[in-house]
Amino acid sequence: MAKRRCILPADGWFEWKRDSGAKQPYYLTGGEESLAMAGLWSAWRDPKGDADAPWLVTCAVLTTEAFGPMAEVHERMPLLLPRSSFSQWLAPDEGSESVADLLIPQPELVDALELRPVSAAVNSVRNNGPELLVRSETQPEPPSWHCSRRYDPYRGRHPARLARAELHCAAEGRAALLLGHGAGGGIDAPDLVAATRAATDAGVHVALVEQPYRVAGRRAPAPAKQLDAAWMAVADTLGERWFEGLPMVFGGRSSGARVACRTAGDGQAVAVLCLAFPVHPPGKPEKSRLSELDGVEVPTLVVQGERDPFGRPEPCHHREVVLLPGDHSLKADADALTRAVSEWLARVLRPLDV
Known about the structure:
It is a single chain. The chain is an alpha/beta fold. 21% of the residues lie in helices and 26% in strands. The protein is built from 8 helices and 16 strands. The strands form 4 sheets. It has an 8-stranded mixed sheet with strand order 9-10-12-11-13-14-15-16, with helices on both faces. Helix 3 (190-201) crosses helix 8 (334-349) and helix 5 (224-241) packs across helix 6 (255-263). Mean pLDDT is 86; it is low at 139-151 and 153-160.
């Protein structure tokens, strides 16, 4: 890695995805732009061969975790390099640390990939012609931006403060919704799943954010300042790399809703979605956290269980409150939660659509 880096130009490559029991081949290409795959090279001789045997020059393509539509086809993909990084990658006197920032998927290159379903004739090595690259109209369309992948915004630089985001992307995103989990739960909570489904159906990308303490395997939450800092780091990174130019909605359930409220101003969120906002600890109404919710100055939706022991906020001029059957878990009527979130997103995002 330190001294033998190379670039392998390619028009594209093939991958296979299992559809209904059969493997469907796809041709992945950059279209008229050639792809630059990161690689390593080596020159060697067979130690058991003749001393004057010719040197063999071999190479290997580096791969990385797949993102975007590619993630629906295969979990890995070639590491693609932007043209602007060629000199940095090939610099002969630079060590491996100098290219650490290139060892991750480049969103602009992933976005430009075409996933083209092709004929199963490519499955046989006897076939080798341009007809193998022709789109097969009888085959299913390639998967769209409905991915679910883990993303590390810190890129391993701060292992003690590692946060992750699981992306669920709509086919054509009009906005991005960041959702945080509760204090002792994870991103697979039923209400977060229902809200994610509502958002992606409405054309909104979703990032389910795991706080560092959960990534580290702990259940006890970190102090509020640490939660807020990790949330903002994820929001900033996703905004730069995946959701550039899109309005962002902050949200979460329980403790995650509190984080969303506290950071909405600094994060320039256009709206806030609160699922089961904990107004106060059970049986302790005097310890109110309502000031965090009241401090939000953008349109807010609070979805609360009718029997929530953590209390119930009141609606106000920019805050809607929807009461659903059930308690703090909000799992009694997932369909109603989906409808409420879907209708609210449509209302608050309509003035922002261009």
